[in-house]
Amino acid sequence: MIKKLTILLKEKFEIFILILIIITSSISITYFNHNKNVTNQNYNDLINNIYLKKTLNNIVNNLEPKYKKVNHKIKSGETFDKILNNYSIDKNEIINIKNSLIKKININKLNTKQSIQFSIDKTN
Question: pLDDT tens digits for 23-40?
Fold first, then answer.
């Protein structure tokens, strides 16, 4: 009986190996798919976490822009220095601004109701 089984195995060896490969492949694929589903579920749970959403919303809503845009209407008696001092700009920076603007415009001739626009860097 054992001899017949051995002969049968030798004759059908390729088929036996093929069946073994198919079974191993199907088990591996099933295991991979299960792990993939578990990982996807973990990511979804993390993304849908209410505490994470609240924390991110709080952080994003409390961000302030780096630059503040200012639109200033000039009033009677205001000078360029006084305007910049009102916005807490450093004196050295005011001097640099004036030196760069003198080449382009006359900052001593400011008209009332004239509007000037500038941006302030709020990093420091």
Answer: 999 999 999 999 999 999
